[in-house]
Amino acid sequence: MEVMVSVHISIWFSSLLVGILWLCTSYIVVIVVYNVEFHPLAQYPGPLWARVTPFYALFHAYRDDVHLSIHKCHAKYGWWSGTVLNSVQSLT
C-alpha cells in the first residue's frame, strides 16, 4: 500500500511540474508574440531582443557600450529605432 501511494504522489507531482512548465512557456510565447506583432511600437524596426525583452538594454549597460549599440541600431534601421522595450529613439 505504501509503494502505491508513493507512486501516485510521484505521478501527481511530475504532472504538476509539466503543467507549470507548460504555463510558463506559453506565457513567454504570448508575451513575445504580442511585443513583436501587436504592440503599438511594433511598427518601428529594431533588434529582436530589444523589442522582446528589457535584458538587451541591461546587457549593453553592463558592457558599458550603450552608445555603440544605439549607433549601430540607427546605422542599420534608420532614423527611428526601437532599441529598448517600450520606447523608440530618434536620430536628430
Weakly predicted, low-confidence segments: none
Taking the sheet with the most strands, its summary is: 2 strands, antiparallel
- Order of the strands making up the biggest sheet: 1-2
**Rg on CA atoms, Å:** 21 Å
Oligomer: single chain
How much beta, percentage-wise? Answer: 5-15%
* Number of contiguous helices: 4
The ordered string of helix (H) and strand (E) elements is HHHHEE
Structural class: mainly alpha
Task: Report the end-to-end length measured between terminal Cα atoms.
Answer: 75 Å
Q: How many strand elements?
A: 2
Overall residue-averaged pLDDT value: 86
Helix content: 55-70%
Structure explained in plain terms:
The chain has 92 residues and is mainly alpha-helical. It folds into two domains: 1-38; 41-92, no CATH class. The chain has four helices and two strands; from the N terminus they run ααααββ. A hairpin with a 2-residue loop joins strand 1 (80-84) and strand 2 (87-90). 9% of the residues are buried.
